[in-house]
Amino acid sequence: MKNVRLKNNKILYIFYIFIKISGFTIGGGYAMIPAVERNLINKKLITEREFFNVLAIAQSMPGPIAFNLSLLVGMKLKGFKGALAASLGVIIPPFIAILVVASIIQTYSDIIYVQKFLDGCYIATVSLTGYVLYKILKNYKFNKVNVVLLFFGASFLILNRNLTILVFMFLVLINYYYEKRWLS
Amino acid sequence: MINILSIFLYIGSISFGGGWAVVGLIKEIMISQNYLTLVEFKEIITAAQLTPGPIAVNMATYIGYKYYGLLGALLNTLFLLFPSIMIVISYSHFKNSIKVNKIALMNSLILGTSLLVFITLYTLGIEFFLDLNIRAILLTIMVLVLLVKTKIDPIFFIIGTGLIAIIIL
User: Fold this and answer.
1) What is the mean pLDDT of residues A76-86?
2) What is the ipTM, given to two decimal places?
3) Domains of chain B: which residue ranges?
4) Most buried among A26, A122, A131, B78, by the most CB within 10 A?
5) Does B83 sit within 8 Å of A157, measured CB to CB?
6) What is the DSSP string of B11-59?
7) Which of residues 25-64 of B touch A (CB under 8 A)?
8) Does the CB of B67 have a partner CB in chain A at under 8 Å?
9) What is the pLDDT of residues B109-149, one digit of tens each?
10) With a CB-CB cutoff of 8 Å, which residues 16-35 of chain A face chain B?
């Protein structure tokens, strides 16, 4: 009996930690990673090594990184129930927030000042995308093949964006086999 | 409804490297299929920025809510996340039988992600240049420089730029 209660508590605790992480981190997945790190490693739920291992897997899966991370960490801590608790914790706060913000924006979107405010936020979003790109490129160690692939991929997609995903997969595969064959 | 759901299922299954990579794709698909106007897209991306949570999830919730209310919001969010869930479940089953070169795979995926983020940047920003909207271009560059040079939380830039825009645009 005591054991069962302990188990349920742990699941609630996972849920609580991920609600806290998700509800107080504005700005998307990349902003969330340090918060996950602080909360999980400092509370000794997982070790640093385990965390970076899980992070690497989360990044190589499709889907939002923070969500993948919550699924994997939850799974590691408490199996399927843990994964369920962690992922619900990540999803619920933004879900409620977006419903509130959506109804506010839809009510007031005809006012000219609100329009201009939205335009301004959009501009900041463009800058933020540029910033994300800058950070990825800054930390990446390029070789010649990477540069050539990126250049051709980008030029091709500017001309024809319907094939975005095909070009993406093509680029990843070529680069993977190149690095596996020649660099390791 | 099925159509929107399948769009987000598709987006969820290809969104490698986080939300920023697919924002451009969401814009592209939703506008070209006449689900959203540019103004509506701006509303959605702003709402997604001002709320906690991954940007792609926020956008899926908003678009679902806009078209089909609470149920739409719920279903659209689930469809976006469904591929992740399936992959985590299958990963925990097969993790010992998959043999990949982890470093090469990570390098390749990051490279691919940078391509997707570049296309997002291009898709989002191109209209300023097409309209020759000098103020918007200058403001974009200014905010970008500040983001690189300072460590201020991006949320302040979003709200701040919005307020500046009320005055100067």
Assistant:
1) 88
2) 0.83
3) 2-123, 133-169
4) A122
5) no
6) HHHH-BT-THHHHHHHHHHHHHTTS--HHHHHHHHHHHHHSBS-HHHHH
7) 25, 28, 39, 42-43, 45-58, 61-62
8) no
9) 888 888 888 988 888 888 777 777 788 888 889 989 998 88
10) 22-32
